[in-house]
Specification:
Beta-lactamase, 5-stranded antiparallel beta sheet, alpha+beta
């Protein structure tokens, strides 16, 4: 039933869509063309993050080591370090945080240079991700940056969700980075989740830990979600949309959000839609 609903939602899409959902509580799965190899965009940064924590666990990197940001590290695209003067020295942990929560391309470049592309891809293979690849041929097409399948992205998120990769402490740290994500326009778009909620006496209905990716005509997102005692993962990927823009309503971002809501409503029925939660009298956080 869920597979059919996802297929119906994807039918009008102008490009290629694929997804994979896994309910880690019940064992249920759902998806659409889950083994399609598509541009991963910045969702590959979850793999880079995991490889960093593997190096930390092995004693080969120190999360408190400070690395100088030099002028040659400048990269276009998402992030904040490109807007700042060279000479800052964030820690390795800071760079992982920036790479994850604002998809910082300068932070990513520094971490990839430190680890090496071959080592990152070897780590991905060691975790059973045979097709997920950091290609790292920058400034070319989306497939020259990174590729993955929804099934493998969902597997990576499941490993992190269940403390099954690197170590439980590393997984907890990775989940903390993912939970602070600032891009919520894809999987998080229609979910009952408030990114700025700060009331300790009234918890949110759900937890959302995710990493998005976006390039022209490409949208991807990989998430861990939990609500009402149910934990599940979802990876959604698109390519070739006729909508090549970056507006909030880009059709791939909207489709990924609609599919996430279908999965959520099927596996966590009864919780309110985003229009009814949080209530208007909830605490506000200034922008």
């Amino acid at each position: 039933m869920l597979d059919q609903a996802i297929a119906a939602a994807a039918a009008p899409f102008s490009g290629v869509f694929a997804c994979r959902a896994e309910n880690l509580t019940t064992g249920e799965t759902a998806g659409f063309d889950a083994d399609a190899l598509l541009p991963a965009a910045s969702t590959i940064k979850v793999g880079v993050m995991a490889a960093v924590y593997a190096a930390i666990e092995a004693g080969e990197m120190d999360p408190e080591e400070r690395i100088m940001v030099a002028a040659e590290h400048w990269r276009p695209g998402s992030g904040v370090l490109k807007e700042l003067a060279p000479g800052l020295a964030p820690t390795v942990a800071d760079l992982v945080r920036l790479m994850t929560v604002v998809s910082d391309n300068v932070a990513t470049l520094i971490l990839v240079e430190r680890l090496g592309v071959a080592r990152i891809n070897a780590a991905l293979r060691g975790w059973g991700l045979e097709q997920t690849t950091l290609v790292w041929d920058l400034d070319k097409g989306p497939r020259d940056y990174a590729v993955a399948t929804p099934r493998e992205l969902a597997r990576l998120m499941a490993l992190i969700a269940t403390d099954a990769i690197v170590s439980p402490n590393a997984c907890a740290a990775m989940r903390d980075h993912l939970a602070r994500q600032q891009y919520r326009d894809q999987i998080g778009r229609y979910l009952p989740f408030h990114p700025y909620w700060n009331d300790p006496h009234r918890p949110q209905p759900m937890a959302l830990m995710n990493k998005t990716g976006f390039q022209a005509a490409v949208r991807a997102d990989a998430a861990i979600m939990s609500a009402a005692g149910t934990v599940f993962v979802l990876a959604t990927m698109t390519e070739g949309s006729r909508d090549r823009g970056f507006a909030p309503e880009q059709e791939g971002a909207v489709l990924n959000g609609r599919v996430a809501r279908l999965v959520f409503d099927t596996w966590v029925p009864g919780l309110p839609h985003d229009e009814t939660w949080p209530s208007s009298d909830g605490p506000a956080v200034p922008s």
